[in-house]
Request: fold
Amino acid sequence: MAMTDYELPCERDVEQVWERLDAVGAGLADEHELTCPHCRAARESLLALREATAELAAEDDVPPALFGRIMSAVRAEVRRGSMVALPTPEPGFVEISEQAVAAVLRYAADTVDGVRARRCRVRTGVGGVVDVELTLAVSVRNVAGGAALALVRERVTAAAAARVGLTLAKLDLLVDDIYAEDTAGEPGE
Reply:
């Protein structure tokens, strides 16, 4: 099963965890798989996902956008890793996980027609300033123009400030895939 790239805080992809589910379940886990809390949490979520998917596959009426909704749930379920300190007007501090920031920024990118956010890496700076690297897949209809990417940059920057309270020191947008859309507007295979 090919999944959208999503890197865990331990730098393993969710797809790697997915591919090793049966091996780990059979007692063939490597040292990392035995001790990593991020891989363990992802594995638990993926096992629940596999069970739910098997139940849905047994049904006759499966929604067409199921894969996207399932992957959103998997991303949301991954345990939180490094924290980003948010600026506060009062003494004290507020922290938010880099994964939570990444989820907000991916969602902002996904609001642009013909763009699908993939991996989002947030690098913590000082005083609420962060560097972000956002990997995207774009529709074949957006390949020739930069307007969609300019809109992604605008929306992601605005979401960082308005929704999270962070200032982006740097936003790198990397297009690593192009997809064709079917008639329903969902990515095709």
About this structure: The CA atoms of residues 143 and 178 lie 8 Å apart. The longest helix spans residues 37-58. The chain has two domains: 14-77, 83-179.
